[in-house]
Design a protein that fits this description.
Distance between the termini: 14 Å
Strand content: under 5%
Number of strands: 0
Order of helices and strands: HHHHH
Radius of gyration: 15 Å
Largest sheet: none
Shape: globular
Number of helices: 5
């Protein structure tokens, strides 16, 4: 039973890492090479930049989840990415982020995306229920 639990924890961490890496690649493509890690960093002290942007950030995050494969299908949306989208809105980069995410991770079954220089696909392990 411990082995199964350890595997499930490992699989979830792998999925989180892959999602974070996808976001980081897109941020770097947008020109945020030096700022990508800080844009993705969310702590208990993180706040939304503007309460008016909260609704827009939530809508954009849902749009990303529904219209792209930036998140795995079994993924539950994390508040962490709500803060990241809020930061992108404040930087006026949210729409461009969505555009790149749509191109890089299209929501078309059977049409996988290979990043530049990537030789093969990397599939995410899905944790067992």
């Amino acid at each position: 039973e411990w082995q199964k639990l350890n595997y499930d924890i490992y699989a979830l961490r792998q999925i989180r890492r892959e999602v974070r890496d996808r976001w980081k690649r897109i941020l770097e493509d947008l020109g945020f090479q030096k700022e990508a890690d800080s844009l993705l960093s969310v702590t208990k002290l993180s706040t939304m930049s503007d309460s008016k942007n909260t609704k827009k950030a939530r809508e954009m995050l849902l749009k990303l989840a529904e219209e792209t494969n930036i998140f795995p299908t079994s993924w539950e949306l994390s508040e962490r990415y709500l803060f990241v989208v809020d930061r992108l809105i404040a930087l006026d980069a949210a729409e461009e982020f969505f555009k790149i995410a749509s191109q890089a991770y299209p929501k078309k079954p059977g049409v996988p995306y290979l990043a530049d220089g990537q030789k093969e696909l990397h599939y995410l392990p899905c944790p067992s229920p």
